[in-house]
Amino acid sequence: MKSPTYLSITALAGVLLSATAWAQGPGTDFSKIDIAAEKIATNLYMLSGSAGSDPAHQDAAGGRIGVLAGPDGIFMVDAQYAQLTDKVVAAIKQISPAPIRFMANTHVHIDHTGGNANFAKMGVTIFAREELREELLHPPALANGNPAPARDPASLPVVTYGLGVPVKIHMDGEVVDLIPVRAAHTGGDTMIRFENANAIMIGDFYRNYGYPYIDTNNGGSLKGALEALAATMELAGPDTKLIPGHGTIIHRTDLIPYRDMILAVQASVQQMIAQGKTQQEVLAAHVTAPYDAKVPGGLLPAGAGTSADRFVGMVYSELKSGKQIGARATLLFFLPLCAD
Ligand SMILES: [Zn+2]
After folding, report:
1. Residue 204 and residue 185 in contact, taking contact as beta carbons nearer than 8 Å
2. pLDDT tens-digit profile of 115-149?
């Protein structure tokens, strides 16, 4: 008899291939989603979709939006699903009547860039990594092997940058830093820091609803996600609000158990690979079991399996390909950061 966590090779392929489709909110009833605003600092707000109406993001529909408001106009982080643009614009107008001028994308996924073209057509200038622009232009194939539908060219970022120094935007009495992250959740991740508000929107390389999701089809990597966590720990002060694309607001110390969980799962999978186990044997062993009670949504569907299956399958693939940094090296790398 198959254990509940057993996955066939076919299902496993589905986990990997449907990863991109999964981020697109299949089965979402957009008419049921409301957009709620939460104040983070004097002129910084966070917009979230309502819970329970997006099967891919049960805790809050779509990806989170940031809104910096003031006399110089609105700067936004991310665009949500295209179907929610009118509701997002209405929520922003409740905050400020000022024109929406700029947007930065944290990464390519449709729950963060779906509305790009709608905002661009309103005159908003979009900033993002050059890699993100390439990912929008050349999306991975769909689960059935067909090419992904082309995105509206208006969704492409107009101002792009690489892995160099952060881009700084000075407006509304704030200094906004667009900080490029090495290939982590995707190949074109950016963290957006609001210096005066002492808040960083970190995108999706960290999440506290479901297990980590590394989109290798769009250039993401486990190694990069670990490096991004280290970079965030260095950037953030003890009181800095870290705002993920999904889930609850956290602080620097919350990153430590998350990183340790990744390293422990990585070590377990590495050991099983050394024992000659196949990917389906590793998935059947359910190596995330010690963490399942602490990861809300971790056993909910994500692609063809659970969020845990998707995470472990990705760790297995990356370790097999030899791209990972060893757990020991990672621990040494993190040690100085754990001291404070
Ligand atoms: Zn994402």
Report:
1. yes
2. 999 999 999 999 999 999 999 999 988 878 899 88
Tens of pLDDT, residues 202-234: 999 999 989 999 999 899 999 999 999 999 999
Compute the distance between CA of residue 130 and CA of residue 162 in angstroms, rounded to an integer. Answer: 6
**For 185, which DSSP code?**
S
Tally Cβ neighbours within 10 Å of residue 101.
16
pTM score: 0.86
Rg (alpha carbons) of the chain, rounded to whole number:
19
CB hemisphere CA count around 282 (13 angstroms): 29
Backbone φ, ψ for residue 67 (5° rounding): -135, 115
DSSP line for 1-49 = ---TT---HHHHHHHHHTHHHHTT-TT--GGG--EEEEEEETTEEEEEE
For ligand 1, the distance from its centroid to the CA atom of residue 275, given in whole angstroms, is 33
Q: How far is the first Cα of the chain from the last one, in angstroms, to the nearest whole number?
A: 49
Note whether 120 and 114 are within 8 A (CB): no
Going by DSSP bridges, is the β-strand pair 190-194/174-180 parallel, antiparallel, or unpaired?
A: antiparallel
Distance from the alpha carbon of residue 107 to the mean position of ligand 1, in angstroms: 7
- The counts of H helices and E strands in the chain are 11, 14
Say how many Å lie between the CA of residue 2 and the centre of ligand 1: 31
Name the DSSP letter for residue 198: T
DSSP state of 292: G
Q: How far is the CA of 1 from the centre of ligand 1 (A)?
A: 35
SS3 for 77?
Answer: strand
